[in-house]
Amino acid sequence: MIFAKKPNIIIETGVARGGSLIFFSSILKMINTSNAKVIGVDVEFRKHTLNAIKKSKFTNIKLIKGDSASKSTYDKVSKFITKKDKVMVILDSDHTY
């Protein structure tokens, strides 16, 4: 889907250990997406998650702490997006259903 649609921004709600953010960032790099950003949204970032992302050396990963369904978090995420951006959202934060 990422290769077919070629977004330049991927937003993932629910970060857990950060592996998906690193994976998405590497895919965007492989398909030469310009102005690529991967934005992770979660209510909590654990130390091992922050270390894994830092260790990955991908500088295009942005982390936003907050409830993905709240207006304030939406406003924080929106600051990274322009009308020209092609955005893909991956909802992975609520596993109750």
Structural class category: alpha/beta
Question: What form results from the Cα inertia axes?
Answer: globular
Read across the widest sheet, the strand sequence of neighbours is 3-2-1-4
Q: Helix content range of the residues, please?
A: 25-40%
Rg calc: 13 Å
Unreliable stretches (pLDDT < 50, length at least 5) are: none
Mean pLDDT: 94
Written account of the structure:
The protein is an alpha/beta fold and 97 residues long. The chain is 35% helix and 22% strand. It is built from 4 helices and 4 strands; from the N terminus they run αβαβαβαβ. α2 links the parallel β1 (9-13) and β2. It is globular, with a radius of gyration of 13 Å. The model has no long low-confidence stretch (mean pLDDT 94).
Topology (SSEs and partners):
Layout (H helix, E strand, L loop, with lengths): L1 H4 L3 E5 L5 H12 L6 E6 L4 H10 L4 E5 L5 H8 L8 E5 L6
Parallel strand pairs: 1-2, 1-4, 2-3
Features:
about 100 residues, alpha/beta, 4-stranded parallel beta sheet, 4 helices, about 35% helix
What's a quick, concise take on this entry?
The chain is built from 4 helices and 4 strands.
